[in-house]
Design a protein that fits this description.
- 77% of the residues lie in helices and 0% in strands.
- It has 95 residues and is mainly α.
- The radius of gyration is 22 Å and the shape is elongated.
- The model has no long low-confidence stretch (mean pLDDT 88).
Length: 95
């Protein structure tokens, strides 16, 4: 059987992009600032939780607990993002 169109293959190389090094530095910097912001949110939420629990304000204590959980999950996702991207990239290349 004859093929009308040949198979197309691509081999993207991020190092060949114009400004690729600058983009990599920008992403690394943003990840660092995001982790810093997540840590700040974690500390503020823990403070709200402690003050709310100490003063008997259960609404503030509940909001503080929620903030601690959300900030922790955010930090976990930011830290694990490169590993997750590489994992799904390798799965996609197996298809």
């Amino acid at each position: 059987m004859h093929r009308i169109l040949p198979l197309i293959t691509t081999n993207p190389d991020p190092s060949k992009l114009p400004g690729g090094r600058v983009i990599q530095q920008l992403i690394d910097g943003l990840a660092g600032w995001a982790l810093f912001a997540s840590l700040a949110a974690l500390l503020i939420s823990a403070l709200v939780w402690a003050l709310g629990a100490n003063s008997g304000n259960y609404h503030a204590a509940g909001r503080g607990k929620t903030g601690v959980v959300v900030a922790g999950i955010t930090a976990l996702l930011i830290g694990a993002a490169p590993a997750l991207i590489n994992f799904f990239n390798s799965l996609g290349q197996q298809v």
